[in-house]
Batch of 3 targets.
Target 1
Amino acid sequence: MLSSRIANIIAVILLGIMFLTAVFSMKGDSLTFDELAHISAGYSYLAKQDYRLNPEHPPLIKDIPALPLLFLDLNFPDTGPNWLQKEAAPAWWVQFDLGNEFLYHSGNNPREIIFWSRFAMICFLIILGWLLFWWTKKIANNTVAVGVLTLFAFSPTFLAHGRLANTDVGAVFGGLLAIIFWLRFLQNPSWKNTLLAGLTFGVAMLFKFSLVLLIPFFAVITVIYALLFSKSLVSYLGKSLLAGLAGFILVIWPVYQFHIWYYPAEQQLRDTIADISSHPVPILKDLVLWMTGQEPLRAPAQYLRGLLMASQRTMWGNTTYFLGQISAGSWRYYFPLLYLLKIPAVFHLLTLSALAAFSATLWKIKKQKKILNYSRQYFWIITLFLWIAVYWTSAIAGNLNIGIRHLLPVFPFIYILAVFGVYQGFKLVKTPIKRRILASFFLLLFFCYAVSSLFAFPHYLSYYNVFGGGIKNGYKIAVDSNYDWGQDFYRLLTFVEKEKIEKIYLDYFGGEDPVFWLGEKYIKLNPKEIKEPPHGWLAVSLNQLMGGIAEPTTGFDQETGYYSWLKNQTPAAKAGHSIFIYYLD
C-alpha cells in the first residue's frame, strides 16, 4: 500500500498533467454553443447583479468563469434591445444574441474573454480532482485514491467538459461535496454536522438543477442508515429536514438575493410569465408567479422559476441525431450506449473485474454470515451504488438526449467503486505469483487508459473509443456535445487563410460569430432555403450535416433530408474533426 506522502506526490503530478493537458487543449478550441450564453450571463450576474439571463441554470457555476473577467476592462451591452428586452417573450434565445453582442460587437477581445473564463473552470476542475482524491483516501486508502485520481485525470469526458465555461463539472462538484457531508452527518448527527450537511446541500443546489435528485436520494439513504444501525429514524428525519431548510434559507436564498439585487421586479415578473406560462403543472406555475409578485419572495421565486424551466426542458426534449435517426424525443438506450462508446474501452474491463471481485467478496461474507457487518462497515458503498442507480434512472427516463456530459455526476462514484472493487478482489488472491500477474494486468489497464486519453489530445470533445469508431468516425453515433459543439471553428479559419479562400458557404453550429472572423468571405448556408447546391467552397458542421441526412423517427414532424445532396460527397478537407469542408464545381 502506498504511503500518504507518496500518494500525495503522485496526486500532485496527476493533477499537474491534467491541468496542462486541459489548458493546452482548450487554447485551440473555439467557443462552444452553451458557452456563448453562460459567459455573458455569469458576467452580468457579478457586474450587474441582475439575473435576467440564463435562469434555467443556477448561478454559481457561471460565477466562477466570470470572476477573472471582472479584472478586465470590458464593455457590456446593457443599453441595447438584447439586454432591455422590452417585449414580453421567452428569453431563451436572447441570451445567445446578447452573448454574441458582448463578445464580438462591444469592442472586447473575444479570445481573451474565452481564455480567462475557461482558465477559471480548469482551476475549478483541479479542485474537484483534489476533493475526490482526499475523500477516497478517507473512505478507502491511499492506493485506491491514486487509482481513482488516475481515472479522473485522464478521463476524456472530464478533459472535454472541465475546460469549458459550462455547468456539468459544477454538478459533479456539488453532488460530491453534498454526499461527503451528508454521510458525515449520518455517522455523527451532531448539530455542527447537521448544519454542514445543510450548507453543502445548499451549495450543491446552486450548481445545477439536476442535483434536486439529492433530495429523494438523501431521504432514502437516511432511512436505510437509521434502520441498518438501529438509530432513531424520527431524529434523523427531523434533523434532515432542518438541514434542508438551512441549505435553502442560509445558502440558496441569500445567493439568489444577491443575484437579483438590481433585477427590476416588474421585469422579473414579466420574464417569469414568458418562461413558465406553458409549464404542464399549473399549481406550481401559479405558485411561482405569485411568489415573484411578492417583493420578499422574489429570490426563492427566481430559484423555483429556473427549476421549473429545467424540468419542462427535460420533459419536452430536444431535436437529436442518434444512430442515423433524428427525433424530438428520446431513446432509452441513448445513455447506456454512449457510456459504452465514449469511455475508454479498457475502463469497461476494469469495471467488469470490479464487479467480479465484488461478487466474490459478497459470496465469501455470505458464507461467513457477515453481510450485516460488511454493510455497516462499508455503508458508503451502498450509498455510491444507490446514487448511481438514482441518477442513471433519471437520465434514462428523461426526454433530453444531448450528451454524455449529463452523466458526469456519477463518474467519480463509478471510479471509486471500480478501483475499490479491484483492490478488494486483489486481496482475495493468496498466491504471490498470482498477485504479481494480477497487479501487472491492472497496471497495464491503467496505462492503456491513460495512453488512449493522451492520444486523443486535443480533440477530447470528439472522443469515442475503438468500438464507437474512434475520434474520426464517432459522429456516426451521436453529435452535439458528444462530438461537435462548435470547437473547431478556429481550425476552419486556419484552413481558409492557408488556402487563400475568398468566399466560403458555411453552416456552422457553435458559439463563434462567423461574420466577425470571416467578414465578406462568409456566406451563410441555409440548406432548407437553397434550391440547388452552391458552387465553390462550403463547410458544414457535423451536427448540422448529420441532422440533415438522418432518417426521421415516427412522429417527427420537422423538415428532413435537406442535406441529401451532400450524402455521397467526399470532403476535400476537415477542420479538426467536426467541420467537413467541400469544394463543389
Target 2
Amino acid sequence: MKNPDNSQTLSPWWRRALLIVMLIGFSILIYLTVNAYYSAPPIPDEVINDKGEVIFTGNDVLEGQEVFLKYGLMDNGTIWGHGAYLGPDFSAAFLHNLSVDASTAFANELFNKSLSELTTGEKLAVEAKATELLKDNRYDPSTGSLVFSDIEIQSFESQIVYWKTYFSLPENNAGLQANLISDPVELQKLTSFFAWTSWVSVAQRPDKPYSYTNNFPYDPTVGNRPTTDAILWSALSLIALLGGIAIVLFAFGRWDYLGWKKTNDPTLAQEPAVVVGESTPAQRYTIKYFLIVAFLLLAQVAAGALIAHYRADPKEFYGIDLSILLPSNITRTWHLQLAIFWIATSYVAGALFLAPILSGKDPKHQVIGINILFAALVLVVGGSLAGEWLGVNNLLGNLWFWLGNQGWEYLELGRIFQVLLTIGLLLWLFLLIRALRSASQKPERKEIVSLFIFAAIGIPLFYIPAMFFDSTTNFTVVDTWRFWIIHLWVEGFFELFATVMVAIIFFVLGIVSKKTAMRVMYLDAILYLAGGLVGTGHHWYWTGLANPTMAFGAVFSALEVVPLTLITLDAWDFIKLTRGTFEIVTKHKWTFYFLMAVGFWNFLGAGVFGFLINMPIISYFEVGTMLTPNHGHAALMGVFGMLSLALMVFALRQVLNDMQWKKVEKFIGISFWGLNIGLLLMTLVSLFPGGVLQLIDVINNGYWHARSQEFLGVGLIKSLEWIRIVPDLIFSIVGVFPLVIGVCMAYLYTRKIKTEKESIEPV
C-alpha cells in the first residue's frame, strides 16, 4: 500500500465529509427543535371544574414556573427527571400524591374501605379506576380549557399545604432555607405549575396510548409504564452501535495510518516549534487565567463537598445550620457554574497560549486585549455568583431573572451576565484570530490554523441558544434549547475544540506531522458530530416531545460511543508517542499524563457510564438517579476537567525554566494522582452503587419513591453518602490543594519572568 504520508496535503474529501455530516446532523437537529414548538404539551388557558368554575389559569402555571425558577428549585429537585437530585422529582411527587388521593376516594366509593384494608384484587380494581380517571385527557384545544374532576381539584388544594410543609424545614427538603416559600399566593401558583407537570405526565397525548412525556415517570399505580417505542428504539440503538463499531474496526484495519501514527519517513520529521522556558509577553500574561482556574476549581470542590453533606445530613453541618446563608440550592448552583467557568477559562487561556506558538510572535497590543478579557472574566464570574445568591434570597425584586438566578439548571446566571459572557467570548475569538493572522499566511500552517479558528467559532456561536427562551417559555421548549447548551455546546463543540488543541500541541512539539494532526482533527470531528449532533435527543425522551425525537435520539446517541471506541483502539499509539525518546516529551511528561487520563475517563465516564444510561428503556427508570451524576462527574471532571488541567500544565511548563519547574512539578504530580484516584473512588464506592440501588428501588416501588427522603434518607443509601467522605478528601486534599499550591508558585515565577523580560521586550 502506498505510504499515505508521502504528501502533507490531505484529500479534499475530509473537508467534504465533515460538511456533509454537519449538514445532515443540523438538519435533523433543527427539525426536532422546531417540532418541539408543535408537539410541546399545551398549557391550558384555564383549568375548570365540571361546572365551568376556574380552579387556576394558564397564567398561574407560568407564574408558578417563575416561582420555581426564582427560588432555584431546579437545583433542589427535578421536573420530568431533569434538575438536581437532592429533593424529589416534583412532577412525580405531585402525581403520586394525586394517585393516592384518587385511590383513597375510589376505595371508599367502591368498597367502603381505606387503602390499607383492600385485598389484592380490590387494590387492582381501585388502581384501574384511578388510571382511567387520570389518563383521560379532558383538554379542549378549541376553548383552551382543561376540566379537572372533583378528586383532582381536592388533591390540588390539599397539595398546597403539602408543599408548604416541604419548604418549611431543611430536613424536609435536603437543605433549603426554612420556610423558603411561605407566601400563600406563591404556593398556590407553584402548586399550579406542579399540577400541570403532573397532568402532562399522565394524561394521554391525543390519538396516542401514552402521555405527553411518553409515560414518564414510572408509576404503575396510574398506568405509567414503558412504551413499546422505548423498547423498540433501545434495541435498534444497539444495532446502530454494533454497526458503528464495525465500521470503525474496518476503517482502522483498512487504513492503518488513521489515528496517532508517527510517520516512519524521516523527511517528514517535525522540529519542535517551541523551546521550553521561552515565551512571549502575551503567553506570560495568560498565566493569570490559570491561577483563576485553580481557585475556581477549589471553590467548586468546596461547594460540592457541602452538597454531599446536605445529602448525608440536611439538618446541620456539625452543629451549624448552614442553610441560613448557604442553602443547598445556592451551593449546587455555584457547584455547576464554577465547573463551567473554570473549565471554559482554561480552554480560553489555552487557545490564547497556543496561538503565538503557531504564529511565532504576538500581534501588537495583544497584552492589552488579554487584560481586558481577564477583567471581563472576573466581572462575569463574580457578578453572576453574587447575583445568584441575591436572586434566590429574593433580594432583587423583579430583576431576579436579569441580575440574579434564572433558575434553569446549568444556565442559572442572570441574563445580563449571559450577554456579557457572549460578548467576552466574541472578544476572545477576536484576540485568537488576530493572534493567528501571521500563521494563516504561512502555506504550511494555513489549513491547521483554519481548523483551529473553525473550531473556536463554535464556542461563542453555540452559546447563543441559551438566550432563546425566558422564564415563561413552555418548559418543554426550554429543555429543548437548554440541551443545545449542555450537550451540543459542551459535549459537542467544546469537545471538538479540545481535540483540535490537543492535535496542535502534538504538532508544535514535533511529535506528529502536520498531516497526521489534521487527519486526527477531521476524523474526530466527523465521528463526534455524526453521533453528537442528533444524539442531543437522548436528553429529550421524557420532556414532552413527540416520539420521532426518541427514535433519532436513541440511534444517534448510541453512535456517540463509536469515537470513544476509537480512542481505546488508538490508546497504545498515543502512549508510544508520549513515551518517546524526545527531550521535549520528557519535559512535558505531566501534560501527557493528564491527556492519557482524558482518554481513560472518556471511555469510562463518557462511554461506559454514559451509554449505560442513554438507551430509552434504561433512561426511563434511571434518569435523575445517582447514575446520572455518576456519569456527569466522570465525564465532566474526568474528560473536560483533565483536559483543562493538561492545557494548564502545558502552559506552565512552557513558561518556566527547568529549575523553576522542578519545584512546581512535585505538586503537579501529587495532584494528578490525587484527582484521578479520588474521582475513581467517588464513582466506584458511592455514586455508582448508590445509583444501582436507586434504580432497583424505582423498578420495585416507582420513580417517586426512589427520589423521596423515605428512600434517600435511610439505610445503605445513606451510608454510601457518608462513605463518600473518603474519596472526597482524597480528591480535595491530595488532588486540588497541591494543584493550587503549584499554580500559585508558577504564577509568582512568571511575574518575575515578566519583570525581567519586559525590560527588553515590548508588550
Target 3
Amino acid sequence: MRSVALLALLVLACDGVITPGPGSPAVEPLPIDPDPEPGPSRVERACMTRTVATQPLRRLTFDQYQHTLARLFGSLSSRVLPGTRFPPTTVVRGFSADAENNTVNTEQSNAIEDEAERIASLMLADPQPYLRGLMPSCTLSTPATDAQIDACIDAFISSFASAAYRRPSTAAERAIAKQVFTEVRPDQGATKAFIAVVQYLVQSPALLYRVERGAGAAPLQGLLELTDHELASRLAFLFTDGPPDAELSAAADRGELRTKEQLAAQARRLMTSPAFLPTAAGFLRDWLHLYEARAGKDTMLFPRYTAQVVQSLEREPVEALRWVLERSDGKLSTLLGGASLPVDGTLASYYGVAAPGAGWEPTALPNRRGLLTRASVMAALAMPAQTGTIHRGNFFRGEVLCEPSLTLPANVDISTPLMGTSNLPTARERLAPTTTSSTCRGCHVQINPLGLALEGYDPVGQYRTTENGAPIDTSGSVDVGAGLTPFQTGEELAALLADGKKVRDCYARQWFRNSVGRIEMPEDACSIATLQEAFETSGGDLGAVLVAVTQLDTFLYRRSPE
C-alpha cells in the first residue's frame, strides 16, 4: 500500500481561487472564448484593436547555439561541437526557446566565455584547417603567412560576422572585430589574432541574442515592421531551430520577405528541410513534458522498463509525428487519436502486439488511441513508482485543454486530507477526499477526472485493469468544446480530446507561445484568435497552423519602444 507521506506529495489542495504562484507571470493565459450566436465572431471581437505585446529579448538555446556553430564552421563543425561548455537549456515551464528558460546568471556567463575559449584552444592546436575552412576565398600557403592573413582579414570579418549575426554586419561592428585583430597581431602574430577574432565573435551579444531593431513604422499604430533579415531569423528559428539557411538569407538580401505570400512560401519550403522534423519534435517534447521522463523509474517494480525500451520510447513521439506528417493526413486528430501509430520491434513486445517487421510501422494497439495514451507520454507524466494521478490530470487540463492554471494556496495543509484513505487499493478511492473537502474540491473536481481516466496506464505506461488487486474505474466526463461528455476509459478520453475544438484551440495557442517565447498577454488576443480560426478552417492541419503563425501581427511586427 502507498504510504501517507508519498500520497501527501501528490495532493494539490486549493480553495478554487485561481492565483499566480511563485514565478508565474502577472497575466494568466487568455481563456478560450467560444463564439456566441449571433453577433461578431471571436476573431472580429479580438481584432477590434490590433496590437502586439512587448517581445522579450531571447538568448539562443543550447540547441540553437550548436546549430549556429554548425552553420559557421561548416565541415569543421565535427571538430568544434563535441565537448561544448555552452550552458544547457533547462525547461522550467513552457518551451525551450522561451526567454525565461534562457536567462544568463554569473555561472552561465562564465560558461559562455569558457565555450569561446574552448573553441579558440581547438583552433590554436591546429590552426591551418580553420584558416582554410573559414577563409575559402583567400589564397593561403602551407602554412599560411602573416601577410596572407592580413590581406584576407577584412573580408573574413565581414562574412563571418554577418553569418554570426544573421544579418549584414555594420561598419561599427566590423571595426570592433578588426580592433581585436590589430591589438593581438603585433605581439602574437596574424594566426593568433585571427583566432582571437573568432573567439570574440562566437560569444558576441549579437550572436547570442535574437536582437530585433525593426525597419520603421508599421501600418498599425505603435508597431514597427521588421527587416527582411529579422523576419528570416524568425522563420529559421521557428521551422529549423537554427539560423537562416543560404536560400533564406539570399531572399532577405534581395528584399523578398516583405509580403505575407513570400513568408508563407518560405515557411512551406522550410517544412521540407531535414531540420524541420527535429524542430517539430522538440515542440512535442516541450508541450507534452516528455523531458520529465528523465526521472528514473523503479526497475525493481518495473523490470520490463529496460534501457532499450527507454530508447525506443524516446523515439516514439518523433516517429509518430514523422508518420502523420509524411505518410498520413497531417492532422492533429490523427496524431492525438489515430488508431494506429508506429512502433518498432522493442515497443511491439512492450505493448504485447506482433512485431511490425523492420523499422517503425503503424500498428494498432489495444486500449490506446493516438499519442496521448502511448507509453512515452504516460511514463513521462508519471512518478518513478506511482502514476501521478493528480500530476497527469493537471497536465492534461492545463497543457492539452489550456484551462487556467490552478495554484496551491500557501495556507493549505496537505499532510492530512488522505490520512483516512491512504490504505485503500485504488487511486480513485484514495483521492476521494480531495473532491469532497471544502478546501480541496474547487480544484480537484477539475483535475481528478482526467487523471483518474489514465489510471489504466501504470507508471511505465503499460496497460492495466487492476491496482492492488482491485478493479480500476477510469470513467468520467470532459468538456472538449461541446459540453460535458462522458467516457469510460482512457482510450475513449483520448478519442474525445483528439476531436475536441478546445484541444485544437489549445494546440494553436501552444504554437503561438512557442513562436513568441513567452506566455500570451491581452495584447495578443487578435493574433491568437486569428491563429485558432486558421487552424480550425484547415481541419486541424499540422502544417497549416505553422504557416498561419507567419501571417500574424505578432510575427510580422514588434512593438515600438516606449
